Amino acid sequence: MGNRVCLVVGAGDGLGASIARAFAAEGLTVCLTRRERNLDRLEALAAQIRADGGAAHAFGVDARHEEAMVALFDRI
User: Fold this and answer.
1) Distances (CA, A) of 71 to 5, 21, 26
2) Is the pLDDT of residue 1 over 50?
3) Taking a C-beta distance cutoff of 8 angstroms, is the pair 32, 3 a contact?
4) For residue 57, with 0-12 CB atoms within 10 Å meaning exposed, 13-18 middle and 19 or more buried, which class applies?
5) Residue 6 to residue 43: CA distance in whole angstroms
6) Phi-psi group of 28: left, alpha or beta (phi > 0 → left; psi -120 to 50 → alpha; rest → beta)
7) What are the residues whose beta carbons fall under 8 Å from the beta carbon of 71, sequence distance 6 or more?
8) Whole-number mean pLDDT of the chain?
9) Which of 16, 17, 31, 69 could make a disulfide contact with 10, Cβ separation 3.0–4.6 Å?
C-alpha cells in the first residue's frame, strides 16, 4: 500500500485495535484515536505496534466532535 496513513477511530481495544494492527502490518502508518479518558490504552497499543516494527501515533480525540476531528486532520 506504499507510504499511506490511515485513521482508526475507537482503536484502543477490540475490533479497532485489530484493525489498527492489520493496517500497520500492511505497512500503513496508523493514527489511533479515542477519547482522552482512555488515552493510556491507546498509547499502549501504539507502543505495541511500534515494537512490532510498525508506525503508529496516538491521539486523544473525541470523534463525536467535528471541530476536534478537523483539528486532528490539521495535525496529521
Assistant:
1) 17, 24, 27
2) no
3) no
4) middle
5) 16
6) beta
7) 61
8) 89
9) 16
- Can you give the three-state secondary structure of 17-42, one letter per residue? HHHHHHHHHCCCEEEEEECHHHHHHH
The range of the structural domain enclosing residue 66 comes to 5-75
CB atoms within 10 A of CB 27: 13
CA dist., res. 69 & res. 76, Å (int): 10
CATH of the domain at 61: 3.40.50.720
Residues in the chain: 76
HSE (CB half, 13 Å, CA atoms) of 1?
12
Please count the structural domains in the chain: 1
